[in-house]
Amino acid sequence: MRRLTSTANAIGGTLFLVLFAVFIIQITARFVLHKPLPWTDEAAVILYIWVILWAAACVVPTREHVVFDLVWNSVGHRARQAMQIVGNLLIGGLALVGLPASWDYVHFMAREGTPVLDIPLMWVYLPFVLLMGALVLRSGWGIWRAVKGEGLTEDVRV
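User: That's the sequence. What structure does it adopt?
Assistant: C-alpha cells below.
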C-alpha cells in the first residue's frame, strides 16, 4: 500500500511540475518574447484538470477532505459508526451507479479532440472516471472499517 501511495504522489507531483513548467513557458512566450503559444493555454487547462482529479482520487487522504464535523464530534461511538456506514453507502453507491454512465460519456468523447493539440477529449476527462472508481473503493473501505469499529474514536479536524 505504501508503494502505491508513493507512486500516486509521484504521479501527482509530476503532473503539477509539468503544469508549472507549461505555465512558465506560457508567461515567457507571452510577456518576454511577445509571441503567445496557443498550445500552452490548452496544455495548462488539461494538466489542471488532471492535477485536480488525480489528487482528489489518489493523493488526498479521506481524512484530509473537507468535512462537517459539528455533529460527528458531538455523538457517541454507535452513532458515529452508523453515520460512517450510511455516509459511505450514499457516496459510494451514487458513485457506483454513476460510474457506467460516466465511462460511457468519457468514452463517447473520444470522437472529439482539443482544438490545438487534437488530444481526444476522452483522455482529457479520463481522470473523472478514475475519481468515481476511487470514490467507490474508498467508500467500501470506509464501510469495512466502520463495521470493524476502526477510525470512529478520533475527532474530525478541519
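The longest helix spans residues 77-108.
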